[in-house]
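Below is our example:

___
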Amino acid sequence: MKPTFSAFLLCIPLVFAVQARATVLPDACGDDKVKFDVSTQKAQPAPAPPAAGKAQIVFVETMDKPWGCLECGSPTTRFGMDSAWVGANKGNSYFTLDVAPGEHKVCADWQSVFGALKQKTGVTSFTAEAGKVYYFEAKVEFEVHQYGVGPGSNTEIDRHFKFSQLSDDEGQYRVKASALSTFKPNK
């Protein structure tokens, strides 16, 4: 056998091992096979308060993308709660979910076919109280580094992902500055 073909055969198990590791998600998330199609609508009225006896979660995605970065794209972020995906955002957008009071685990991750981006996951837990609103943000940041000038230049993009709970004031501001997401599972 030629050495390059032998090396190729030896690398195949490594590729599958990396992909298997990349698809392991926290228990708060859902099945990695579930993907969403997302559309957004700007200038929507503020969300209605939670239904009687329920709490409300507002999931927000914010993007900090350098102007003119076409390679950065607009990632879709999935949000999960208590081991199931509950929706998704794309770009600067949000959606709401009414939930029963009690302890909940929430999760956010990039919906991606690329293993390295699938590792962009955040998870936390909180205790919901009836009548209250809770804001969670998935913040996506891009850093673009250009090496060289002209046709021989090279561009590298660093992607950062942070998932955290926001204060009421910050959450309300993010909702005002964002579009409303609507989504459906993509089968």
